[in-house]
């Protein structure tokens, strides 16, 4: 058995690992660049900033809800590697389109530029929808059974490391530098995708249903009646609902409640991503390669407690007068900065420990010709939960609830996730 890191030496894993890493980096770089530009340079109203973040998040999730069923069918009925190459070619065009929107917005054509950027976010959502089932479903095809958990952990860890680097780049690079980088990375990603080994269809040929509504319904119905998959998908969905709420809250909360500038925002988001990556690798060590939900309930309970601690820290933060923002040095020399960072890292690490084994359940407890559709069914339910999370933030914000109080609701959702994970653990372990 290879250690998880040993897979990075294997051609059956490394090109896929690098391709999805670069894709996640580019996706995050563009989205973060857009959100920071609009939050710090266009909108100057706390509620409007939170509303824009909700809209951008919601738009990126619509394709997952509508097209995941089709993506899963195509991945299970065609060579997954060929689909990867098509998707990576499309990424080059999407980055050019999104760059045009940023240029227009910066030049003063604000409404047109933002509309084009949101269009690019929609296209990136479509891009991710078709790539998402493959990056997990291809693993059982290229890896041994006892390597899948380690491979899944590495994919999760690298995704969040890519988010880390994309976030840092968005905060520190100029718009021109970031635009050039997104285009270059898209080209490199396409070149590396050509090195991914073939992953041909396995099992009987499928009759593809192109109707997004009926296809999604049938896909979810065919998956969710299996108890272990039902519990795993619901637990993952609660996790991503929590994640969506945190994603929506983060930009306005850091700007307004913590009085921090874009570079501080990028650094905190990057540290959060490092934490999830650490948790994704640690859980493989704890479980010694075995797919199990053993640690999921306690990890998400701890996560909820840390979210409450984060809310309390934010409430006592020394806020600057309106319009003034802490820079890097001023922010991280504050007495509360170290506890804040430790709490954020704890939230992220426990989140990684929670979610990675659940994804491994999806790909190791079904036959190989069903893995992509299983992941796609998970994506449909996840995206629905995430849309609910984004809409809920918009609704409670409109009612005047502060981000600090919304965090208490998020902590309550962790309890529901723990209950589902415990039922999965009792049913399958």
UniProtKB/TrEMBL annotation:
The chain crosses the membrane at residues 12-30, 51-71, 83-105, 112-139, 159-192, 229-252, 264-283, 295-317, 337-360, 380-400, 406-426. It is found in: Cell membrane. Coiled coil: none annotated. SUPFAM superfamilies: MFS general substrate transporter. It comes from the Bacteria. Keywords: Cell membrane, Membrane, Transmembrane, Transmembrane helix, Transport. Signal peptide: none annotated. InterPro entries: MFS, MFS_trans_sf. The keyword Transferase does not apply. It is a multi-pass membrane protein. The keyword Lipid biosynthesis does not apply. This is MFS transporter. It comes from Sphingomonas oligophenolica.
